[in-house]
Amino acid sequence: MAASGNGRTGFAAFFAADMLSTLGTFVSMVALPWLVLLSTGSPAKMGIVALAEMGTFLAASVFAPPVADRLGLKFTSVASDAGSALSMGAIALTPHIGFLPLVVLVAVTGGLRGVGDRAKTVLLGPVVKLAGFSMKRVMGAYSSVVRVTQLVGASIGGLLVFWFGAPGAVAVDAASFVVCGLIIAVLVWPLPIEAKPTDEPKIGYLAAFREGAREASRDQVVLGLTVVIFGLNVLNQANNSVFVPLWISSVLHSAAAGGSVMSAYAVGSVLGSVVFTAYANRLPRHATVIAGALLGSLPRPLVLGLSHSLVFVLVVTFVSGIAGAATNPTWGALLYERVPARFQNRVFGLLTAVCAAGLPLGGVLAGALVAGFGLSGGIVSTTIVGGALIVVALIWYRRAAAQSETVPEPEPAPA
Question: Distance (Å, rounded) from C-alpha 235 to C-alpha 311?
């Protein structure tokens, strides 16, 4: 299909709206814990609020897509943004509402974000197709911008809390949902999602959910790479939440160095995403995924267990960020390529939840092994366990890909 000016305008609008929503999310990640701490003085309650938001986000990602498919993805996206604006606005206007009502409002927001984010993810496919772009390059560019947004979002959130207080920063997040919903409602008109065959009867919620689960388990290539992402999340979370803080505390005795390690990986990831975006259509997919998964995950924790040099750790972490930047965009492009459009909302939600399950597991695994074997022993043993999972999943993915018929991605139409 030839690209159109309206298609590219819609893509630009959609991209801007999604990045604005992402920026608002990172602002709230700073503002909400601060609001809870100021209003309750309890670190434990900060954790409960975070759990409420993430728990409902994942639950909605898994269980809401059949309903969203029935309502329509654009309507679901806009309605979710409107509901999120109302719930976050209520938090901003009533900062002393009490802990339990605050937990309820945050949980509602998390659930609405889960529904809306899945709808936006699926809408991206027809928006990109109408614009005439390559999905692999779009996923690389998307990853680059998201990482930059992550870098600046927390800083902006801190400044907003400083200037306007935590309620003011939450109000900015509420406003971002309003603007995002308006942009998508007015400017984004994607191609219709692939419809069911006309002779296929309508099915209920449970049947639709089971249908999505069957489709999610059907494609071994997608499943193999999903388990790779799960393993990467295990190691990344173990590194970020346990190994880096403990290494900084026991070796360097300086909290400031922790930020430099995180920043080195983030900057490397941004650079790697830019390179991947530029050369996505030329790089061999399977070799890129395998190299990126291994080099982006294993050296990061191992260097902490084997070295006391901050400079060496920063260099290895930076290079790992560059190497690992291609894996998630490749997984995303593969999903759009291999999952039929009418199943994407349900399948994406299920597989995203599988990947996200690696985050809490990584922290628990790392903490238990460090407690049992000390810091160096815990780092090495966790890396062996996580690395073995990633290697097995990569073998699964590669064998499944070799057995599968390759469906070439259509070249982007000329402007």
Answer: 21
CB 73 within 8 A of CB 346: no
Q: Is the dihedral of CA 71, 338, 360, 322 positive or negative?
A: negative
Q: Is the backbone of residue 41 left (phi > 0), alpha (psi -120 to 50) or beta?
A: left
Last residue of a domain, one of 132, 156, 189: 189
Task: Give the Cα separation of 405 and 392 in Å (integer).
Answer: 22
Domain extent, residue 73, equals 5-189
> Which pLDDT value is given to residue 382?
93
At residue 42, φ and ψ (nearest 5 deg) are -120, 115
Number of domains in the chain: 2
Reported residue count of the chain is 415
| pLDDT for 413 | 46
pLDDT tens by residue, 384-409: 999 999 999 999 999 999 987 554 54
Domain assignment of residue 12, yes or no:
yes
- CATH number at 164 reads 1.20.1250.20
Burial of residue 202 (CB within 10 Å: 0-12, 13-18, 19+) is exposed
Residue 269 half-sphere exposure, CB side, CA atoms within 13 Å? Answer: 26
Place of tokens 């990947």: 355
The amino acid present at 342, given as its one-letter code, is R
Distance CA 14, CA 5 (A): 14
Six-digit token pair at 48? 């409960």
Is there a single domain that holds both residue 90 and residue 230?
no
Exposure b/e, 386-399, CB count within 10 A at least 16 = b: bbebbbebbebbbe
Q: Are residues 99 and 227 in the same domain?
A: no
Q: Which two tokens stand for residue 91?
A: 């938090």
pLDDT of 201 over the 80 cut = no
Q: What's the 3-state SS for 185-227?
A: HHHCCCCCCCCCCCCCCCCCHHHHHHHHHHHHHHCHHHHHHHH
Which two three-digit tokens encode residue 352?
């995203």
Global pTM exceeds 0.85: no
Token pair recorded at residue 361 = 């597991």
* pLDDT tens-digit series, residues 272-293: 988 888 887 888 888 989 999 9
pLDDT band (50, 70, 90) for residue 322: very high
The two counts, helices (H) then strands (E), for the chain are 16, 0
